[in-house]
Design goal:
The protein has helices at about 5-15, 20-25, 30-35, 50, 140-150, 175-185, 190-200, 205-210, 220-235, 325-335; strands at about 40-45, 60-65, 70-75, 80-85, 85-90, 95-100, 105-110, 115-120, 125-135, 215-220, 240-245, 245-255, 260, 265-270, 270-275, 285-290, 295-300, 310-315. By secondary structure, the chain is of the alpha+beta class. Strand 5 (about 85-90) and strand 6 form a beta hairpin.
């Protein structure tokens, strides 16, 4: 029987451009297991906060966060991270992250040919966040970081935990629609939305289906692309959120180059790339949430399980109203979105 190393090398040789995530799925293993078997890669201690606070010393890098159907790549320099317990953030004009360490378990320095990166993985072996060196990065700082946090007790037999089972939402018949809609209309900021869902035991898709009149509407893929094309043409600054159980990565700014490549819809700009696999899209919603600064509008793309693939907002700072350009483009695309 072939070893995992042999199987991996065979598939990699047959398709050199194949991504490690896809090869792992093909082999029925987790991505971190393929990372661990390479003698070039070095497992780091699980001192995630400390490692993240060393990242600014690397200088310009490329940050990557993805989920099953979307990839978010942003170039720039990390600022120092801030943590409150297991929740943290990296805030800066280039790299903007929300971090949830509850699910983090593994960290590796990955060296593949001329590519060097620091990669973080969840308890279930799935990738959470990756930081790639660029031509402008400080490789000496990278080497020093690796030596400082190298795990000398490393074992290639990683203990992978099963992903936790998601709790089933309350059935539609048991939702108090009137109370739910009242709470929606009473929202004071977008951060209260998730706790509102938990309070009523409703998943996001059911929530959007039972939103107050005029606060949610489905749109087609073509309509969504039309919106992004108009946003790019008019240079309307937006925010693009893509995340997973351990990290949400945010781009804020204008977008320019929109490219369709087979089933992937892409933003391919100098500092920011988004790759969206249309095969994963179940529905697309324009959503409105009240706040103390007026209505906040978003586009939310969901998969078949009702999980968010990607969210788009108009670029704004906390405590200020939604930008008029973003509001206007949503209204112009379809007069029924008011």
């Amino acid at each position: 029987m072939k070893s995992l190393v042999e199987k991996y090398n065979k598939l990699k040789n047959e398709n050199p451009k194949a991504r490690i995530r896809d090869i792992a799925n093909q082999l029925g293993v987790k991505e971190v297991e393929l990372i661990a078997i390479s003698n070039n890669n070095i497992q780091l201690k699980d001192e995630f906060e400390a490692i993240l606070n060393e990242i600014p010393q690397l200088g310009p890098v490329m940050a990557l966060t993805r989920n099953e159907f979307a990839v978010h790549e942003r170039k720039g320099t990390y600022n120092t991270s801030e943590f409150h317990g297991k929740m943290g953030q990296v805030v800066g004009p280039d790299i903007d992250l929300r971090l949830f360490l509850f699910s983090w378990k593994f960290a590796f320095a990955v060296i593949e040919n001329d590519k060097k990166s620091i990669q973080f993985f969840a308890k279930d072996g799935s990738a959470i966040h990756k930081i790639y060196l660029t031509k402008s990065s400080n490789e000496i700082a990278f080497d020093d970081l690796v030596e400082k946090y190298r795990d000398n007790n490393f074992s290639k037999n990683l203990i992978i935990e099963a992903a936790p089972q998601e709790q089933s939402p309350v059935s539609t018949e048991k939702i108090d629609i009137q109370a739910f809609q009242q709470d929606w209309l009473a929202l004071e900021n977008t951060h209260q939305f998730f706790s509102m869902l938990k309070k009523h035991g409703v998943d996001r898709r059911h929530a959007l289906q039972h939103a107050p009149e005029g606060y949610s509407q489905t749109i087609s893929k073509d309509k969504f692309k039309e919106i992004l094309q108009k946003v790019a043409k008019e240079q309307i600054e937006i925010m693009v959120f893509i995340g997973n159980k351990g990290c949400i990565q945010i781009h804020s700014g204008a977008i320019n180059r929109l490219v369709q490549a087979d089933t992937w819809y892409n933003i391919l700009d100098q500092k920011f790339n988004m790759h969206l696999n249309e095969d994963g899209i179940a529905d697309i919603w324009v959503v409105k949430k009240p706040s103390t600064n007026g209505i906040i509008s978003s586009i939310e793309i969901l998969d078949t399980a009702g999980e968010i693939i990607v969210q788009f907002f108009g670029k704004r700072n906390a405590g200020v109203p939604e930008p008029e350009g973003w509001k206007k483009v949503l209204t112009e695309i379809d007069n029924s979105i008011s």
